[in-house]
Design goal:
There is one protein chain. This protein is of the alpha+beta class and about 400 residues long. It folds into two domains: about 50-290, 3-Layer(aba) Sandwich (Beta-lactamase); about 300-390, D-Ala-D-Ala carboxypeptidase, C-terminal domain (Peptidoglycan synthesis regulatory factor (PBP3), Domain 2, Sandwich). Helix content is about 30%, strand content about 25%. It contains twelve helices and 17 strands. It has helices spanning about 1-25, 25-30, 75-90, 105, 125-130, 135-145, 150-165, 190-200, 205-210, 230-235, 275-290, 385-390; strands spanning about 50-55, 60-65, 100, 120, 215, 220-225, 235-245, 250-260, 260-270, 290-295, 300-310, 315-320, 325-330, 335-345, 345, 355-365, 365-375. A hairpin with a 4-residue loop joins strand 5 (about 215) and strand 6. The radius of gyration is 35 Å and the shape is globular. It starts with a helix and ends in a 5-residue tail after the last helix. Residues about 5-15 and about 15-30 have low confidence and may be disordered.
Length: about 400
Amino acid sequence: MKKWLVVVLIVFFSAGLVQARTADPKKTRSPKKPAQTKVMAVPEDPYKAFIVVEARSGKVLEGENIHLKRPPASVVKLMLACLVMEKLAKGEVKLTETITVAREASKMGGSQVYLKEGETFTLEEMMKAVMVASGNDAALAVAEHLAGTKDAFIKLMNEKAKALNMVDTEFHSVHGLPPSKGEPEDQSSCSDLAILARELVRYPKLLEWTAIKTEGFRNGQFIMNNHNKLLFRLPGVDGLKTGYYRETGFNVVATALKNDLRFIVVVLGSPKARTRDDVALEKFKKAFAQYKTVSVVKKGEEVNKEVILAEAKIGKIKGVAGADFLYPVPNDQKETFKKEPLLAEKIKGEIKQGQKLGELVIKLDNQVVGKVDVVSPVNIPKANFFTILIRKIGINI
């Protein structure tokens, strides 16, 4: 009996001890995890810099950090295009001339059309490869063809930048690829790239190339797709060039035309291609919605001020405007343009049709916004000796 009682007591106390241990919160609860602080993601800037410019006048409509120097990546190829178009205009090169691919061009990386050493293509084929497919190999092949060496062409690029007053720009490559370790990067700014774009939009052939969305290369064996997706997103976009590498972000120099009004938008340093394009698209839509083009001067318009012709058969002449002048103004702005002729008092010798007689200065709200040459509308031969002599003594006949 005593043994049975002892066993019962032992079982009873053991069960109580187990229950007590199970109930002990210090023994059974998992260690409390420290509260986690939520880290809010900092949104990336949609760009590092941008500018909106009216192409014909150069008027800056909007911008931010417009002189911030940044590597433009493949946008560098616009300067290559500028030199090509200039040489074409001067007759120094032809689109039909043949370019033979050298060894270095055939070994380029990045965007390319996979040129092979010894292959031949026309200059126009190569330029399409540069402007549509952003071919680094094609860019180098064109540069070597035109200047002999890559370095010689880079020198021409920097000389042209200086001539255009691109004060924030320095080129070290013909293609815009990131440099090797220790080598300098290409540098430019929104302001300078807008200047370059204004120069380029004067060439319809270039805009023909930059407006191509897709095209075959090497007899259709390679399909080139334009990197500028704004061509697909906004009617009127017909150029110009995108650029990207990781350290500099996504860049674009774009242009669009609508109702005789052309704008240039430059966006540099976006974190994503879509973000860059969204910014450019918004800037284009805003500019086209808020501005109109005013025809201030028409080519051939007579300037109401006479120029004395000292030695020509006719003693006086009224010149005409040598070109149209259009200017963008906000839709709600009252037009207050003034046209002030600045002409030579007296011109000697015979007069040729189209000869410059002076300038017509255009002002808006008393600020000079442009100038147009005043030219002779006709040829006027030189007067005879007697007529010239009479004029010299003060009788104008």
